[in-house]
């Protein structure tokens, strides 16, 4: 696809970093928090096909999180820079996908610029797109790298979420599934190895008619914080699970098929599929709908839970650490979340380091 090249180079991921909350919270720990019988949460996980055994939460003390979005983002960004083998001062842009910044109205990306001591001429901002945020931001970064009006590279793209503080024991279907994590990737224009795959495609979508099916009801402009919203538990995450599950499977299959078709990549050439890590049965049903073998699907939800925008980049680093993905592999990714929004992409992994 020659339109994707600039002087023989294409956008690609060159480094990946991840971080997670300090506290490992098992299903048994949740039983204790909920005051439920031993094995209650495990049974709920089996009944819903969620597949989570533990998740990472940030510590809380005196009503304040002891790790923040900028803390996890900084750790993950440092890891991505190290893997990518770049000088941090060469970064031209940082985009952080998050629904849980340290402070409302303040960009986590700008805080990362300060935390790492990066130059002031860097572009840094946040993107709010729920679970699809990292992949939406990656699409934006790839287009930016190819644009004559772009910032150039390298660029950092992160998905960072601290969700445990906005979970309520009164809303069991969200309380037991979400975790805290960060995943950051470095993207840049790279010259592919001779014969390496170069076709890529992004296919996004949105259905705002279902915006009320997954959200935090209060704290925005519709229901500003008040005594009423606090007393009615409106600052915690709410989800209509059955509707979300049905749409997640349908939409991820839909955009994944379109991405494969648009990129003109045979499905059998895909080395690894990383779907959004929300629910094991959703992952399995999506793979089945694509007629894609589960042994080539990355599953990290067992250990991390649903980490929203951090889900895919965290799973990608896990895949690298487990030797599930390597340089020049073709990867399919798909995500679905609040909005409702959905997106899939075919990404040639031509920028990853060569393992010794």
Global outline: globular
Proportion of residues in β-strands: 15-25%
Helix content: 25-40%
CATH superfamily of the largest domain: Thiolase/Chalcone synthase
- State the CATH class of the largest domain: Alpha Beta
Beta strand count: 15
Extract low-pLDDT stretches: none
Largest sheet: 5 strands, mixed
Task: Provide an overview of this structure.
The protein is an alpha+beta fold. The protein has two domains: 2-190, Peroxisomal Thiolase, Chain A, domain 1; 201-348, Thiolase/Chalcone synthase (Peroxisomal Thiolase, Chain A, domain 1), CATH 3.40.47. 31% of the residues lie in helices and 23% in strands. The protein has helices at residues 27-34, 40-48, 69-84, 108-115, 133-146, 172-175, 227-231, 241-263, 280-289, 301-304, 311-321, and strands spanning 10-20, 23-26, 54-57, 60-61, 64-65, 93-97, 123-127, 155-161, 181-190, 201-206, 214-215, 238-239, 270-275, 330-337, 341-348. The radius of gyration is 20 Å and the shape is globular.
């Amino acid at each position: 696809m020659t339109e994707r090249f600039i002087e023989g180079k294409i956008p690609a991921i060159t480094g990946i970093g991840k971080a997670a909350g300090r506290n490992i919270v098992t299903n048994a720990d949740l039983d204790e928090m909920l005051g439920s019988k031993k094995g209650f949460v495990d049974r709920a996980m089996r009944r819903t096909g969620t597949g989570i055994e533990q998740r990472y939460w940030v510590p809380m003390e005196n009503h304040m999180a002891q790790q923040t979005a900028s803390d996890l983002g900084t750790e993950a960004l440092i890891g991505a820079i190290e893997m990518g083998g770049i000088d941090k001062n060469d970064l031209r842009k940082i985009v952080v996908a998050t629904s849980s910044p340290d402070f409302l109205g303040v960009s986590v990306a700008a805080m990362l610029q300060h935390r790492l001591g990066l130059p002031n001429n860097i572009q840094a901002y946040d993107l709010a797109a729920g679970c699809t945020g990292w992949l939406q931001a990656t699409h934006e970064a790839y287009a930016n790298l190819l644009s004559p009006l772009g910032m150039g590279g390298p660029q950092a793209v992160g998905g960072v979420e601290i969700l445990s503080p906005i979970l309520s024991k009164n809303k069991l279907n969200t309380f037991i599934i979400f975790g805290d994590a960060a995943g950051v990737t470095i993207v840049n224009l790279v010259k592919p190895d001779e014969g390496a795959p170069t076709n890529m495609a992004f296919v996004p979508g949105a259905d705002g008619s279902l915006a009320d099916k997954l959200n935090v009801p209060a704290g925005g402009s519709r229901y500003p914080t008040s005594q009423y919203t606090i007393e009615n538990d409106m600052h915690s995450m709410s989800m209509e699970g059955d509707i979300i599950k049905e749409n997640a499977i349908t939409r991820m299959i839909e955009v994944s098929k379109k991405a494969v078709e648009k990129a003109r990549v045979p499905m059998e050439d895909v080395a690894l599929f990383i779907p959004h890590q929300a629910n094991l049965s959703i992952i399995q049903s999506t793979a089945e709908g694509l007629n894609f073998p589960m042994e080539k699907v990355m599953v990290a939800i067992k250990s991390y839970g649903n980490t929203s925008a951090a889900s895919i980049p965290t799973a990608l680093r896990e895949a690298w650490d487990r030797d599930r993905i390597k340089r020049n592999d073709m990867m399919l990714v798909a995500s679905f979340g609040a909005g409702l929004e959905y997106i899939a992409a075919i990404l040639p992994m031509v920028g990853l380091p060569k393992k010794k």
